[in-house]
Amino acid sequence: MNREQKAEVIGSLKKDFVENRAAFLVGVQSLTVAQMQTLRKELRTKGSFLRIAKARLMKIAVSEIPGAQELNPYFKEQVGLVFASDHFTEVAKVLTNFSKEHQALRLVVGYVETAVIPQEKIKVIAQLPSREVLLAQVCGTLKAPISNLVGVLNMQMTRVVMALKQIGEKKQ
């Protein structure tokens, strides 16, 4: 790899860090080609991608990115970066599930919006429900008091109608 190619890889990695909300550092040392292809395919369905480069080039790429310098100690052995633009919780789920199925893939650390996240917290993030489920839960929580109020008011109106009906029956 000549200098121009290295500069191109470094520039591409910097661009990926800037344009994406999250990055996950994963160990890919013992992954087979078939496993790597399966992982890339699953990641593509979630709008993310895996980049493999030399650890030295990754260190250079993150040196100018705020907060990302804290990733430097983790760039050793054979590691890859998984970049996620929007739904990084779904990407964390994919990585966690894949690492359970294939012990060759190991989660090292995460980087979300200038903060480094340890492996344990990535697993916690992976257990969170999806965004749609969380929004539905919030809507249900907000709707519950209103629904209860409507039910109570409806019950009161029913009682008034029943009382008027009984009074009408007594007068006849």
General description of the model:
The longest helix has 41 residues, at 131-171. It contains 6 helices and 5 strands; from the N terminus they run αβαβαβαββαα. It is elongated. The protein folds into 2 domains: 3-128, 2-Layer Sandwich (Alpha-Beta Plaits); 129-172. It is an alpha+beta fold and 172 residues long. Strands 2-3-1-4-5 form a 5-stranded antiparallel sheet, with helices on both faces. The mean pLDDT is 87.
Structure keywords:
172 residues; alpha+beta; Alpha-Beta Plaits; 6 helices; 59% helix
Q: Tell me about the biggest sheet?
A: 5 strands, antiparallel
Give start-end ranges of low-pLDDT stretches. none
Total of helices:
6
Over the alpha carbons, how many angstroms does the gyration radius reach? 27 Å
Class inferred from helices and paired strands:
alpha+beta
Would you count the extended β strands for me?
5
Question: Domains counted in the coordinates: how many?
Answer: 2
CATH superfamily of the largest domain: Ribosomal protein L10, N-terminal RNA-binding domain
Predict the CATH topology of the largest domain. Alpha-Beta Plaits
CATH architecture of the largest domain: 2-Layer Sandwich
Helix content: 55-70%
Mean pLDDT: 87
Strand line-up of the largest beta sheet: 2-3-1-4-5
CA(first)-CA(last) distance: 102 Å
Compact summary:
The chain is of the alpha+beta class and 172 residues long. It has six helices and five strands.
